[in-house]
Automatic annotation (TrEMBL):
This protein's name: S-adenosylmethionine:tRNA ribosyltransferase-isomerase
Gene: queA
EC number: 2.4.99.17
Organism placement in taxonomy: Bacteria, Pseudomonadati, Pseudomonadota, Alphaproteobacteria, Hyphomicrobiales
Matches recorded under SUPFAM superfamilies: QueA-like
Organism per entry: Rhizobium paranaense
HAMAP family documented for this protein: QueA
Amino acid sequence: MRVDLFDFDLPDERIALRPAEPRDSARLLVVDPNGGEATLRDYQIRDLPSFLRPGDAVVFNDTKVIPAQLEGIRHRDGAPGQQVSATLHMRAAPDRWKAFAKPGKRIKIGDRIQFGHGENVCILGALDAVVEEKGEGGEITLRFDLSGPALDEAIATVGHIPLPPYIAAKRPEDERDRADYQTIYAREEGAVAAPTAGLHFTRSLFVALDAMGVERHFVTLHVGAGTFLPVKADDTEDHKMHFEIGYVDATTATKLNAVKARGGRIVCVGTTSLRLIESAAGDDGTIKPWHGATGIFITPGYRFKAVDLLMTNFHLPRSTLFMLVSAFAGLDTMRAAYTHAIETGYRFYSYGDGSLLYRKD
């Protein structure tokens, strides 16, 4: 499909720079492409339980954001040091991370980068890495001098929360983001971007879901920085997705299959949990235990195998995420939904409002 089919104009003031307080007071646009004249309805996140039924299952991504934005100095054969930035996006080994680097063109294989220069450093004095591989679009593979838990501790010491570029361009990261840019149920460290639909959930909303008899289940997909990359191709067939590591354990797969078998619905919170469940599902809709790297690219025409409803934020134009929601609820429906959201003051992107989408029949 042509990528420009997924373009739209977003006024700059619609980009949210902070989340709603409390989190579940954010707005919720309910989008039902099968609902006739009642396709679009305006609510708040705390109204979510009224759209669910006893026996439904809500699936959350419990990945935890790490401070994966690193600033350092590149050193090469006696040449003057150069300031570089690296955003880690996928772990390749206990001592290796794939990262997006700036300025990427000036970095070469074999360069040594000292991170934490001029600021807090780890207990060994600095966090050093060697550029082991170089790919396209500024992607590099860094081999660190530390490994495993020691490397994790060092990254936590010298790193910064990697705010999305559309927020970072307007204000610097601060201490508040360490809490704001994390779900209340975050557990498995490894993401460099938050599963942002989950940012809306509060303890009181969990209590309301439990009281209804709605099940809560957790899967893990470590969101990578590739989620922020624009689609530069003119046709979706020419776009290359970046891979992300995730897993669905056997217990969760069994329980979700039981939900479907008794007529309950699977409600994914965020496109990340949806992509993972669809990666783990067979053609018959059966969800199997799954572990690995997924690069699933969902565009209109995709046949969804397991997910019935999707709760998600409002996404960037020409993005893979807007393509995904258009596949789920229909392109014409989602274009109308985004037009309504813009005209009625919904807040967009990571810290913005949310939507609840019914799958198009």
